[in-house]
Design goal:
The protein is of the alpha+beta class. The chain is built from four helices and two strands, in the order E-E-H-H-H-H. The longest helix has 19 residues. The mean pLDDT is 86. This is Transcriptional regulator.
């Protein structure tokens, strides 16, 4: 069964959110790609980022591949460790 989430992709001139359904698997893969990109840009290894967040390197690897479903707490820790706002982890550069 495919699960979809709805994302606010942009707002119109009245501030109303334009929503777009996204497959949950695609969402997790995009989140992981963004985390990997930001980690590499910061010069951190997977092990360093994982240590900073208190998770195993293998779990971070699964997040970056889109095969794990991180909690909001882990997402917040990742953003903090990467020095970005949480919303940056959900942006798609594609």
């Amino acid at each position: 069964m495919a699960i979809t989430v709805t994302l606010c992709t942009e707002t119109n001139s009245r501030g109303v959110c334009a929503v777009e359904p996204v497959n949950l698997d695609t969402f997790k893969v995009n989140l992981g790609r963004q985390i990997r990109r930001l980690r590499k840009e910061s010069g951190m290894s997977q092990e360093a980022l994982a240590d900073h967040c208190g998770v195993f390197r293998t779990y971070l690897s699964r997040i970056e591949r889109g095969s794990a479903n991180p909690s909001i707490s882990i997402i917040a820790l990742l953003a903090l460790a990467l020095g970005v706002d949480v919303i940056e982890l959900f942006r798609s550069d594609a």
